[in-house]
Amino acid sequence: MSNIVVFGSQWGDEGKGKIVDMLAADSAAIVRFQGGNNAGHTLVVGGEKCILHLIPSGILHPGKICLIGNGVVLDPEVFLREIDTLAAKGLDVSPARLMVSKKAHVIVSYHRALDSAREGSRSSGAKIGTTGRGIGPCYEDKMHRCGIRAADLADPELLREKIKSALEEKNVLFSKLYGCEPMDPEQVFQELLPFAERLRPYLGDVSTAIEQAVAGGGTVLFEGAQGTHLDIDHGTYPFVTSSTTVSGNAASGSGCSPRMLERIIAIVKAYTTRVGGGPFATELLDATGDYLQEKGGEFGATTGRRRRCGWLDMVVLRESVRLNGPTELAVTKLDVLSGLPELKICVEYEYRGGRISHPPQEQNGMAYVTPVYETMPGWTEDITGVTSFSGLPKAAQAYLERMEALSGVPVGLVSVGPDRSQTFHR
Ligand code: GDP
Ligand code: IMO
Ligand code: MG
């Protein structure tokens, strides 16, 4: 077995949680390395659904070590609530198997307030449609070097001082720019304290824990959040999230060498979805878009928002291949395409009077492309019970083969339903 990185190749919600849950069976440790509770990863086992926002998607497998790396931004309240929900289901969520990096940055109430204030102040076309979880403001503080790190939760005096200092600047923004009430540092501190106390036993050195898992003969599974086109550098800026979502960050965001990243799996939804604002070249604002949305149950796992739906975009996928270097594709939600008479795949864009095969890099350039499509025949059979490539209708096989040809990457896994069991190897 090899160490594995799982990443999203589109705009998130590709089914990363489902695939990580499945692969966790053969891993010793599962690590989240970026993002925060903007993520919503859905696991379905034996018909029972579980949505995780922060805790790695390996938690349902007894005995597996679950680690939250330094690259994550952690909301203590959300983390503890998630622990309580899992414990109520009888799962072991003790610090013996669950660890938060002391270097992870902490989301505080003023980050959430700033996220909402900023979104509220943007004009309708400029709204990013953030999840409102304080993700961007927390990463800003990290880069600004005034952030609170998880280790600080064990040092109340330092915590109090950092909150006071952070609010000196933020309160000017709240009161003078956004017209809202300033926040009382002592109140923010007192509200955080009980969470900090409960979180303390979970704090640890994730980098060393990874080293130990490998030294013990086990493999590590790195769980990406969001998707490549939401990446702060490579995504459709400024309509992106605030972290580095590409596979290479699995090393930096968890504290290990890039040489540890061996097998890299691109999770690809068989069509495309996006939640929130920003350009989406293959979006379908018609009955086919509604069909995908309804049949795919495309509602955000974090905010419950309707996901925008469209055809598969190979320009987007090819860029993801270039940026992440996948060794294989895991294609999800192929079952959702059953029943459509024909399927379209975007292979290039028309842009400024020419044809391009990669996304434009100018700000919002993606909003001005016109997709160039290839059309393939669809299939009518229900494929949710199929367990092998040869068991798929010929048209579904051809669709997967076309994805392989256009991306240059083999399909290693196929998912035909939400349940852990509805997955097979190519
Ligand atoms: P993630 O954020 O990448 O983990 O994905 P989400 O959990 O936000 O969204 C994926 C949704 O699709 C969830 O509701 C999953 O249960 C569901 N899902 C995953 N794989 C499949 C599949 O192959 N077929 C169907 N019909 N649903 C799937
Ligand atoms: P998973 O891991 C889909 C989107 C938001 C918004 C933008 C910025 O479940 O795939 P943020 O709150 O991060 O500042 O919002 O990014 N977004 C996601 N979209 N899936 C996600 O995570 C997302 N996390 C953030 O909708 O457009
Ligand atoms: Mg999701």
What is the compact description of this entry?
This protein is an alpha/beta fold. The protein is built from eleven helices and 20 strands.
Oligomeric description of these chains = single chain
What helical percentage do the residues reach? 25-40%
Structural class determined from secondary elements:
alpha/beta
Specify the biggest β-sheet: 10 strands, mixed
- Unreliable stretches, pLDDT < 50, 5 or more residues? none
Radius of gyration, whole Å: 21 Å
Can you say what the CATH homologous superfamily of the largest domain is?
A: Adenylosuccinate Synthetase, subunit A, domain 1
Tertiary shape: globular
CATH topology of the largest domain: Adenylosuccinate Synthetase, Chain A, domain 1
Number of domains: 3
Name of the CATH first level of the largest domain: Alpha Beta
Tally of helical segments: 11
Strand element count: 20
